[in-house]
Each structure stands twice: as structure tokens, then as C-alpha cells.
Amino acid sequence: MDCIEGIKITYPRYLCIPGQRFMVWNILLMYWGAYPVIKILHGRAGFNLIHSYGVLPAGFAGQLTAGRLNLRSTCTAIGLDINVFAQKSAAMKAMAKYVLANTGQIITVGRELALEINKLQLTDLKIKVIYNGVDDKTFDTAGISHTQAKMKLGFSQDQRMVLFVGRVVREKGVYELIEAFARVARKFSRVVLAIVGEGNEQASLKDLSIKRGIWNKVIFAGNLPQKELARWYAASEVVVLLSYYEGLPNVIKEAMSCGKAVVAAKAVGISELVVDGQTGFLVEPGQVDGAASALEKLLADSELGRKMGRRARSLIKAKDFNWRQTAQAYREVYRQLTEKSKV
CB within 8 A of 284, min separation 6: which ones? Predict the structure, then answer.
């Protein structure tokens, strides 16, 4: 159990079987592990609403639990759940549909994800878009110069940084990133790739960077606290995210808030922020040539990157992504659902 800012956090334990073919079983195992813990907590605290984050697996476990305890429920769809998990099998799609049809309020992190849910052809769905916020105080590098950030991080002024932030897993397009960067590095001798984050593909990526002869140009920085991460954004020339699928990733919002051009794959949700040719470049998922070409354009023309970065920051400011607004929107959903439970 943890306590963060006075809020107690309990982590129910459950058996998880390795391998994607056991995903249905793992969702059920999550429910069987979580239900008795939530029942005990409900007996102590008497809450009347369950909010699940992710339609699968958490949403299914949360919805079954809410039904058994006669509680109201809401569920936030995040992208991977709808675009990938729900497409794995007929059973997984049925589980997703069960959650969406029975939860009191479906929330999505972006408009495009809401459209994907509508493709499941369920009737009378109540979908509300609530964008995740971005810490506009931390991720506003107006007071941190590009030069100062490089100096603080130990980079020379003639080095050019391509930055990736996220989990180091295959679905984030990390192999395509290494391949694209290897091509870029042949044209720009002082370019480096910084990978911020950790994941199960890190060792394999290091091996690939050795095979491609770029091992001395790829930096694995690991997980970083938010304030330090802002400095890496400030020091970068361009931020890249080649994910196969997303909801509306915070990484892109953070990068744009810091005034950085973005090269991203055309995953669901991405085009809500990255306007091709205006705030960055969009490339086809899995397309190494397109990613390399986009990076080369930005590295060859610093002024183009700065212009795109300024437009990106203006777009984020105009959309007013901030956690205060996000929290207020969720609070209103909770209020509406709990008032219904009193009727």
C-alpha cells in the first residue's frame, strides 16, 4: 500500500499467465484478484463509484465488480484497449463490448478514439472526451534556453539531439526508430539519439545499435523525473514517436508544450495534435524511410524546426490542455453518476 498526497493506494495481487494467448484468462484473473479486495475496501469506506482506466483489462474487472456490489461505474478508454486488445479475438471484443454497454459513462482521451469505439456498433453509447492534461508549468521551456539545456546535460553545442520518450517496447516503434536513426546518422555526423524510458526491448535495441554501427550515438537515459525530462526536451532538436497505436499520448503534448517539432506515426489520435507539415511530420506506421526523411528535413533546416515548434506550442496553449481542466471534467462525471445512484 502507498500513500500519495494523503490518498491511500492499494494494489490487489493476482496471478498473470505469460503469453498473449492467455489474455482472456488474465482479465478474469484480474477480476478474481481485485473483487475481494475492493469488496473489503467498500465495506470500510462505503464508496459508490468505480472508475476503471482502460476498457481491457481493468474495465472488465471493474464493471463486473461494480455489478456485484451494486455500484455506479465509469471507464476511460486509452487506445491500446480498443485498437489492439479488443481486436485480438471474438472473446476479447465481447468483453470490451460488455464494458462499453454497461458502464455509466464512457470516457476517451481523444476524439479519434471515440470514433473507433463507435465502429463497434453498440447502441446508446454515452461517450465523453476528456483530454489528459500536461503540466504547463513543468513543460514550458521558455525559461530554459536550448544552449543552457545542452550544457547542463553534458552535450556540446554542435551536437543535435533526436529525442524519444516512452516505454521501450516494440509497439512504440523503437526498432523502426533505430533503423531510421542509423540512416540519419550517416548524413549528420554530430547527431545523437536519446531514449528516455525503460522497457523489455532495451537490450535488443542496444544490440541493434551495435550492428548498425551507431552504438556511440545512442543514449539510453532510463526513466527520469518530470523536471529533468523538461530539460531533455529543451535540449532536443526534434521529438519522435513511431508508435503503431496510441490514444492521445502525453509525450507529444509535453514536446509541443516545450516548443518542439514532432515526427510521429499516423496512429489513432496523433493527428489531433500533429498537423503534418505545420507542427511536425506524420509518417506511415512501420515506415523507416518516411521517418528517416522527416528527421533529415528537420535536422537540415533548424529554422523549419523552430517554426514548427512555435506553432506546436501555440496549438497546445489554444487547446488549454492542463490537469486542472482534466480534474474538473472528471469531477463533473463523478458528480453526475453519484447523483443518479441516489435516485
Answer: 265, 266, 290
